[in-house]
Write a structure and sequence with these properties.
Elements (H helix, E strand, L loop, with lengths): L5 H14 L14 H8 L3 H10 L3 H6 L6 H24 L14 H39 L7 E5 L5 E5 L4
Antiparallel strand pairs: 1-2
Helix pairs in contact: 3-6, 5-6
Length: 172
Amino acid sequence: MKYHRIPALLVLGALLGLVGAVHAQRPRPQPKSPEERYEDMKKTPFLAATLEWIIPNVGYDYAGDRDAGMPPTLLAVAGVVIFYTAAWSSVYSCMPELNEPRDPNCGRVFGLIALGGALTFLGSRVWASVSAWKLANRTNAFYRKRLGLDDAGLALSVTPGGQFGLGVSLRF
């Protein structure tokens, strides 16, 4: 009987807490500087190229333009179709009948076509990875320009006559 008042106090406290609930305001986030915003939006070219190599069109999607990845993706699909079509044609066309000897030159043409399909696939993957790398760099340059982070300041140039010129870039 020593603690018989505790449940009543807990219920009373809960009821009073519901009536006079205090809603704390969240602190407003401080606005980010353009450099911090750029770091949040920046794309990693190596990640874009790696994603594109592993899964077609994912690297382009990460870099900022999914539609740009369609030509290399279609070329990769064509390479796979050519490879497997030539491989299956070679298997079914070069099988000897029961009592006939096997022709040693039968699979050469199909082998060359299959090799062409494999090279088409690999070439399209290399093209896509390099292109996704460049797209990530172009996207980063676009973000830098949009946020006003382009290189500005002093510029030193040499004229065709061998004279030096110094230029100053100012932003308002």
